[in-house]
Amino acid sequence: MSAACPRAWTRAASSRSGLEARQGRRRPVKIATFNINNVVKRLDNLIDWLAEAEPDVVCLQELKAEQDAFPAEPLAQLGYNAVWKGQRSWNGVAILAREAEPIVTRTALPGDPADAQARYIEAAVNGVLVASLYLPNGNPRPGPKFDDKLAWFERLIAHAEDLRSSGAPVVLAGDYNVVPTEADIYQPHSWADDALLQPEVRAAYQRLLDQGWSDALRQRHPTGPLWTFWAYLRNRWPSDKGLRLDHLLLTPDLADRLVEAGVDRWARGEADASDHAPTWIRLAD
């Protein structure tokens, strides 16, 4: 665990008392997704955001940590139980639940037994099935990485259809590495060759929606920029040149309960921040 952990322990402990004082208060359920871009290196950022935002369920991506390096104890001090699938250097996904026990249902996306990348985890939390997913980036293209992205997307579409037809309330949350439309990027032409914007990728995302899933952010904010990612390069954060890559897709029953959705942009402006910002929804209790 990194040198940042003692400070994170202190912050978690001090925040726990405030959390306990709020126990029993009825509130809408808040579910968030956050590509943390190295959970050990950015544990302080994560602790600060959890203490401020108080989500009930959090889907994390890009842990970039092996299984036994995940900082479960500091998060437990803040009131969050966790399930995760780590991977050295790259990938890694987790689900955190505040004052609840997430019950793991899957630690891999079905359809390819040879897939060893930690990109999907699924758990039941208080009657809702929640998936944290990290879809392949796909660059450079054309080439095998782009082919792998499309193949992974096909597996996701097949599994999503099974989930959708099961009748369970489901949230598919994560970094999809997809810019769904031209309205979801500051300047489309500068990314024209990137895998994030390709017609095949956008068509796959639309096929997910066509199964009956609701894009929660666009349900609440049909127009206007909703950036969730700002690259580290070329001054893109200070100049607000962002993209929308992080999505929460809801089954119809949960879409009917959706009361609010947003992006915690402030977290992207903190020191040593991830290049993604937490993205969240509130569901009526």
Automatic annotation (TrEMBL):
Instruction: Show where the Endonuclease/exonuclease/phosphatase domain sits.
Output: 32-276
Q: Which InterPro entries match?
A: AP_endonuc_1, AP_endonuclease_F1_BS, Endo/exonu/phosph_ase_sf, Endo/exonuclease/phosphatase, ExoIII-like
Site residues (Transition state stabilizer), renumbered to this chain: 177
Metal-binding: is it a keyword of this entry?
A: yes
Give the record's cofactor note, including how many are bound. Probably binds two magnesium or manganese ions per subunit.
Species of origin reads Caulobacter zeae
Keyword entries, A-Z: Hydrolase, Magnesium, Manganese, Metal-binding
Query: Which cofactors, by name?
Result: Mg(2+); Mn(2+)
Write down what this protein is called. Exodeoxyribonuclease III
Site annotation (Important for catalytic activity) points to 246
- Check the record and name the NCBIfam families matching this protein: exoDNase_III, xth
Lineage runs: Bacteria, Pseudomonadati, Pseudomonadota, Alphaproteobacteria, Caulobacterales
Question: Which PROSITE patterns does its entry note?
Answer: AP_NUCLEASE_F1_1, AP_NUCLEASE_F1_4
User: What molecular function terms (GO) are annotated for this protein?
Assistant: DNA binding; double-stranded DNA 3'-5' DNA exonuclease activity; endonuclease activity; metal ion binding
Active-site residues (renumbered): 134, 175, 276
Q: Where does Mg(2+) bind?
A: 35, 62, 175, 177, 275-276
Annotated site, Interaction with DNA substrate, chain positions: 276
GO BP annotation list: DNA repair
Q: Which Pfam families match?
A: Exo_endo_phos (PF03372)
